[in-house]
Amino acid sequence: MNASTLITAGIVLLTVVAVESGGLFLLKGVRGRQPANALQTSFYRAGHAHAGVLIILGLVTLLLVDGSGASGAVVLAPTLVLSAAILMPAGFFLSVLGKDPQKPNGLAVLLYVGAAALAAGLVLAGVGLIGAGVAQLG
Questions:
Q1: CATH architecture assigned to 3-137
Q2: Strand ranges in 1-138 using DSSP code E only, listed in sequence order
Q3: pLDDT value, residue 34
Q4: What parts of the chain have a pLDDT lower than 50?
Q5: Residue ranges of the domains in the chain?
Q6: Which end of the chain has fewer surrounding CB within 10 Å, N or C?
């Protein structure tokens, strides 16, 4: 692995502490210790779950792309996937801020931006990895 991959992976692993803190916040909400309506509770759950899953997917993408020796636009794939790990949970959490929201606010747009980043990153990684594999065959 190259130095930038190791540094990125280390930083991403440290972000799991923030996800852990979010889990504690979520637990308080579910147990009624933190005021939250049904919409907020469901969005908090979704945000927390997306954060954890997308961090893992981002790390896997980082390792696969780095290990493949791919170059060009493919090297942006892990950054896009890891960006989705920030944008989508932020959209879930920030779009239901307030005392008793009845619907998500405009910050829900972060969900769509994150989904686009995720799709782009996965397509780039998938195509790049297939290309790297085919190159190794020939």
A1: Up-down Bundle (1.20)
A2: none
A3: 80
A4: none
A5: 3-137
A6: C
